[in-house]
Design a protein that fits this description.
CATH architecture of the largest domain: Sandwich
Number of helices: 2
Order of helices and strands: HEEEEEEEHEEEEEE
Distance between the termini: 82 Å
Helix content: 10-25%
CATH topology of the largest domain: Immunoglobulin-like
Number of strands: 13
CATH class of the largest domain: Mainly Beta
Shape: elongated
Number of domains: 2
């Protein structure tokens, strides 16, 4: 004789309740996925609409007050003193920029010739500009043996090619929202009339660069 399996009303209620919960969970997950997709789409739309453009920098002025080589047996040292002015511009119409941990220095032939000089942190509003000035100094910095040869070659050519650089971190500000920190690098090329290695410290005045040139900026 075959067995007859009866299901009690209580058991049926439990089974029916499980089915209802399963359907509810499926509907809840579907609604949650739709909500998340909508939020992501909104974020993407805002990003595409307010996509921040990287800041623009230009070199306004660079004065070399000292650029002297001292020859010591087996190696040479360099003393340098440079005053520079950078113009910073925020090209964004709806995005502000916070600048943090900014430092500037000078480089010649791929070699850093001044210590890092910190600049004050600041906020730059929509499409605002800011002038940044700094004094760069390098005292008794050891340089490679080929450094003197490079200086003499530039002296013969009558011009000094130097890189003035800035590094730091920035944060984007959209409304009340502020992003995390992003590293940025600025590289400005200055071509300065160069008559003598010691011209800048011999009483004839500094070697000057006074022409605004666009700098390369990476974020």
């Amino acid at each position: 004789m075959s067995q007859i399996h009866e299901t009690s009303p209580k058991h049926c209620a439990k089974k029916q309740g499980f089915t209802i919960n399963k359907k509810f969970n499926k509907k809840f997950l579907c609604s949650l996925s739709t909500l998340l997709l909508s939020i992501l789409s909104l974020i993407l739309l805002v990003y595409l609409t307010l996509h921040p453009k990287k800041p623009q920098f230009s070199l306004q002025q660079a004065d070399i007050y000292q650029f002297n080589l001292s020859n010591i047996p087996n190696f040479s040292t360099l003393n340098s003193s440079i005053r520079l002015t950078l113009l910073s511009k925020n090209p964004n119409q709806r995005v502000g920029i916070y600048y943090d941990e900014i430092q500037v220095y000078a480089s010649y032939k791929g070699m850093q010739i001044t210590q890092n000089t910190p600049l004050p942190e600041f906020y730059q509003g929509h499409e605002d500009t800011e002038l940044l000035s700094a004094s760069l100094n390098g005292n008794m910095l050891p340089v490679a043996p080929s450094f003197g040869y490079e200086v003499e070659r530039d002296q013969t050519a009558g011009r000094l090619m130097m890189n003035l650089k800035a590094i730091g971190r920035l944060r984007w500000k959209i409304g009340t929202w502020v992003s995390g920190k992003y590293r940025f690098n600025v590289n400005c090329m200055a071509i300065i009339p160069f008559g003598s290695v010691v011209a800048a410290s011999s009483g004839s005045g500094p070697l000057r660069f006074r022409q605004g040139t666009q700098c390369s900026t990476t974020v």
